Amino acid sequence: WSPDNVTVIFVLGGPGAGKGTQCSKLVSDYGFKHLSAGDLLREEQDRPGSEFGEMIKTYIKEGTIVPMEVTIQLLENAMKKAMEEEKKSTFLIDGFPRKLDQAHAFERTVVPSKFTLFFDAPENVMLDRLLDRGKTSGRADDNIESIKKRFRVFVETSMPVVDEFDAQKKVIKVNATRTPDEVYQDVQARLKEWGI
Ligand code: UP5
Ligand code: MG
């Protein structure tokens, strides 16, 4: 395990912007390893014997951000596992960092990101998608109360991360309101500009 042979691409965007959907497409075409911080937290929440289960559950329901010590540890473990078992070296880190101090800590203690893919969609579009998904997802935060809280945390706490990377010229911003395939075509074209 050495940061020298690892590439990290952060995938950010509001709740329901389509981060997971686009990551799945990228995985099939580019062989990246997709790590959704939210999925890792939900897995840890459900892991029998986890000391963090109850805490994670509360944070997710409230749409607030789990302390980074937990999330960074889960991400680091998953990265090491994917490197050893699947020989993966390029990671799509989806839904993380959600706070400036998380971005700084990850880039300092794990590895600096190459760039950030940012999926941009207005709240009304994301709201419709999440309410629709909520009919079947079983996710504890796909309800109107939790969604509103997630939107607020995204604007107040997570957007500053995107803005900081943008100031470093490290953001690829993609309009995420069109169909998944249209969005993906745009993603592919923009990755080409980055030599990927
Ligand atoms: N859909 C997708 N793209 C579409 C398109 N172009 N057109 C029409 N429909 C589209 O998509 C959402 C829904 O929209 C799906 O039904 C999809 O088919 C459809 P998805 O790809 O799942 O969007 P995504 O952006 O991944 O939405 P998600 O709900 O996963 O985003 P969140 O950022 O809210 O959720 P996440 O799982 O990352 O985090 C959940 C919670 O975990 C956070 O609120 C927080 O409490 C906690 N968390 C942390 O504390 N720390 C972390 O680092 C990460 C998470
Ligand atoms: Mg997701």
Q: What is the CATH topology assignment? A: Rossmann fold
| CATH architecture title | 3-Layer(aba) Sandwich
**How many runs of DSSP E, i.e. beta strands?**
5
Q: Number of DSSP helices?
A: 8
* Quaternary organization: single chain
How many structural domains can be distinguished in the coordinates?
A: 1
Radius of gyration from CA coordinates: 16 Å
* Straight-line distance between termini: 23 Å
Main sheet summary: 5 strands, parallel
**Helix and strand succession?**
EHEHHHEHEHHEH
What is the CATH C-level name?
A: Alpha Beta
CATH superfamily descriptor: P-loop containing nucleotide triphosphate hydrolases
Mean pLDDT equals 97
Spatial arrangement of strands, main beta sheet = 2-3-1-4-5
**Protein structure class:** alpha/beta
